[in-house]
Design brief:
- The protein is an alpha/beta fold.
- The protein has a domain of about 170 residues: P-loop containing nucleotide triphosphate hydrolases (Rossmann fold), CATH 3.40.50.
- About 50% of the residues lie in helices and about 10% in strands.
- The termini are far apart.
Length: about 290
């Protein structure tokens, strides 16, 4: 009866309802082909020899498609295995100019005074930290936030990225929307320093069907749902618009509902009952219109 589940998931069928739901809702790593390739490319940055002109990566794709999770998983795995932390992850702040950008990095490095106004003092503090901590890879999540200022502000940020490679042997990794790729490739100087790792929307193909099979095997429902069956797989794909974050959200909500209803399986009808609105249609969703 539980042959459709992974071996370590099967014992959860004997747990109470709350435990099963908590397990289903917990974040989970999905080691799909793009994620595995991204980790390989990130590992190459750690293993490279010292250089005065370091190469970096751009991890680019649409919102809700797993870019941040890929980077966080890599950073955590490195932290567990390495004697010294060489990978640091930064949440790039909204706001133009070096002040906001420096503050993002100072906060990630757990430095005091990240909110001080003097940009020169921030730069000095940041140089001191980079010299002492000696990171090898600096991951800048939502880097498109740093690209919304004036042209001279953006160029100052790019100059900083070039300098940390030359001065501190750091490879920057830029995570964000397609605007990141456009800005980097606007000049040959920056384009030559960054390689693109694309995290595109999923296509309806064998890889997508395998993803659904792996999700089903990880969710402790007593009955097989056969998520990769054509009508059900098509419905999930249509609602998710090929975004892995949306795919996982839809399947997770349907699995929780299956436990609550006692059906113990996901069906096309139960997916429809979620009334999930695709990302592209939320601006004009009926519920939103009722608020006007």
């Amino acid at each position: 009866m539980s042959d459709h589940l992974l071996e370590h998931v099967r014992p959860y069928l004997g747990r109470d309802r709350e435990e099963r739901i908590a397990y289903i809702r917990a974040p989970r790593w999905i080691g799909h082909h793009v994620a595995q390739d991204s980790h390989r490319r990130l590992a190459e940055l750690l293993e490279r020899p010292p250089s005065l002109r370091t190469q970096g990566l751009m991890l680019v794709g649409p919102y809700a498609n797993g870019k941040t999770m890929i980077a966080e998983r890599f950073a955590v795995e490195h932290l567990r295995a390495a004697p010294a932390q060489k990978v640091w992850m930064v949440q790039t702040r909204e706001g133009a100019g070096l002040g906001h950008f420096y503050a993002s990095i100072l906060q990630a490095l757990r430095a005091p005074g990240g909110d001080m106004w003097d940009v020169g003092r921030k730069a000095e503090q940041l140089d001191h930290l980079l010299e002492s901590l000696k990171p090898k890879v600096l991951i800048l999540d939502e880097f498109h936030n740093a690209l919304r200022g004036r042209a001279r502000d953006v160029e100052a940020v790019f100059a900083f990225l070039r300098r940390i490679g030359r001065q501190y042997d750091i490879s920057p990794v830029l995570i964000g929307e397609v605007a990141v790729c456009d800005f980097i490739n606007a000049t040959s100087e920056m384009a030559s320093r960054f390689e693109l790792v694309a995290v595109p929307r999923w296509q309806y193909d064998e890889n997508y069907l395998m993803l659904l099979d792996s999700l089903e095997a990880a969710l402790p429902l007593a009955k097989s749902s056969d998520l990769s069956n054509e009508p059900l797989a098509r419905r999930i794909f249509s609602l998710s618009e090929g975004l892995i974050g949306e795919i996982v959200t839809i399947v997770t909500k349907a699995a929780v509902a299956a436990i609550g209803s006692g059906t113990e399986r996901i069906s096309k009808a139960s997916i429809d009952e979620l009334r999930h609105v695709p990302v592209s249609k939320r601006r004009n969703a009926a519920l939103r219109e009722s608020l006007l």
